[in-house]
Amino acid sequence: MDDKKAEYQHIQQTVSPVVEVTKPHKTMAANSIPKLPYALINAFIIIFTVSDRNRLLLLNHFLYHRFAQDVSGNVSIDTTSNPCGNESDEDPLESDSHRVQSMTSSMIMNFELVVSLLGILGSIFLGTFSTCLGRKAQLLIPISGYTMRALSILAVAFWNLDLSWLYVGCIAEGLMGGVPGVYLGVYLYVSDITPRNRKRTLGLALLEGIRGIMGSGINIASGQMIQRTTFF
After folding, report:
1. Is residue 207 included in any domain, yes or no?
2. Per-residue model confidence as pLDDT tens digits over 143-195
3. Is residue 17 part of a domain?
C-alpha cells in the first residue's frame, strides 16, 4: 500500500510542472486575435465598401443619364447654371434639369425602399438561422443577392433595357439580406474569432473604423472621377 502511495506521489510530482508550464500558454493563445482571419475579413470589408459606394454613385449617374435622354434627347443639361435663380426666369434647359433630377431622386428612393423593406425580412431570417446556416452561408447569401443586383444594373446599361428591370435586382438583394446582411455576417464572424474580453470590442471598433474611413474616401475619389471623366 505504501509503495502504491509513493508511486502516485512520484507521478503527480512529475506531471504537475508540465501542467503549470502549458496552462499560461493556452490562456495567452485563447486571449489573442487570430491575425490571418482578422486581416482577411478587414480586406473583405475594404473591397466591399469600395464596391458598394461606387455602385451607388454610378447608379445615380446612370439614372440621370437615362432620364436626361428621355427628357431632352441628350445629356448636355447643365446642372450648375443659376442654382438660386428665379423660377419665372428659368430657361428650358434649367427646367429640364430640375425635372431630370426629380425623376432620378424618385427612382433612387423607390429602389432604397424596396431593398430596405425586404432587407428587414432577409436580415431577420439570417440572424435567426445564423447558427444553423454557418458563417460561410451567412456571408454568401447576402453577397449573392448583392451580385445579382449588380448584374441587373450591368444588363440594363449594356442592352439599354427598361429601367423597371432594375427592380428585379432590388428584390433579390433585399430578400437575401442586402448590405446589412453582409455586415451582419462580418460582425458575427469577428465575434466568433475574437476572445470575450476587450479585444473583441477593439476588433469590432477597428473594423467599423476601416469601413467609415474607406467609405468617406471613396465618396470623394468617385466624385472627382465622375466630374473629370463624365463617364458618358
Report:
1. yes
2. 999 999 999 999 999 999 999 999 999 999 999 999 999 998 999 899 888 88
3. no
Structural domain containing residue 45 = 34-76+88-229
Query: For the domain that residue 92 is a member of, what is the CATH number?
Result: 1.20.1250
Is 25 inside a domain boundary?
no
Residues near 132 by beta carbon (within 8 Å), at least 6 away in sequence: none
User: Helices in 81-161 by DSSP H: which ranges?
Assistant: 92-128, 130-133, 135-159
The total of structural domains in the chain comes to 1
pTM of the model: 0.75
Cell 496552462 found at: 23
For cell 445579382, the residue is 148
Q: How far apart are CA 88 and CA 69, in angstroms?
A: 25
Query: Is 7 within the bounds of a domain?
Result: no
What does the alpha-carbon distance between residue 49 and residue 212 come to, in Å, rounded to a whole number? 9
The end-to-end CA distance of the chain, in Å, is 94
1-43 pLDDT tens trace: 555 556 656 555 554 454 444 444 445 455 778 889 899 999 9
Please state, in angstroms and as integers, the Cα–Cα distance from residue 76 to each residue in 80, 182, 204, following that order. 12, 38, 46
